[in-house]
Amino acid sequence: MESLTSGSGVLGNALIGLREGLEAGLVVSILVAFLVRTGRRSELPKVWLGVGIAVAVSVGVTLALALAQQQLTFEAQEAFGGGLSIIAVGFVTWMIFWMRRAARSISAELRGRLEGALAMGPAAVVVMATLAVGREGLETALFFFTAAQAAGETTQPLIGFLVGIAASIVLAYLIYRGAISLNLGRFFTVTGVLLIFVAAGILAYGVHDLQEAGILPGLTTLAFDVSTAVPPDSWHGTLLKGIFNFSPQTTVVEAIVWVAYVAVVLPLFLRPQRTRAAAPTT
Fold it and tell me: Where are the annotated coiled coils located (predicted)?
């Protein structure tokens, strides 16, 4: 039971690391494959330099957020964390829909941008690779930071996140080598649904932070209290907290925000996509 309880904080963050890491890994794979197949391996170090810069910036942002929060008063910390949670949910929601829409065309788009950067010079290649991976990295850093704050732990979120990242790197490499064939559309749909519920929990947690900071009212007005049936320190309470940020004592405002987010975002995400007519080939 103890291992399950401690492992619950790992699962939600492992999902974040797997999903966001695979998105970044696929971007890198597309860039590398394009250079290899067009006989321009000499440009690979520039791409890897850009990837390294993007990773360093993402790690730096995470550390800066953690250090900045430690310098604040309790009320300011709650306001800071709550605001970041809402921003992170906004970014992740946008990325979920963007990846669902652009999954089929992202490869051609990235190849075109890299071709243009190659024509401009070495610095443009580094900048292009940095921006392509950096967008994923910054989003991941912000979402991980807020998820770790919501989990209320020190090492478990980081362990889960690193496990997810490691799995995403392996998957991206196997896809690049042609060792496995992954239905990316289905993968991003399933993980997108799961992330919607994770994001809903983080959004509710952010609202709770704003209530504790005195910015939003209703901190003592509970929608329900199931702490007797689901004790916060029980294995199932910790499991729900670690994956979906479920709180046995949920305020009315938190409940409204959670339900409203899922009720709006989930149907929009699952609705059938409109298929565009294929462009004529020459």
Answer: none
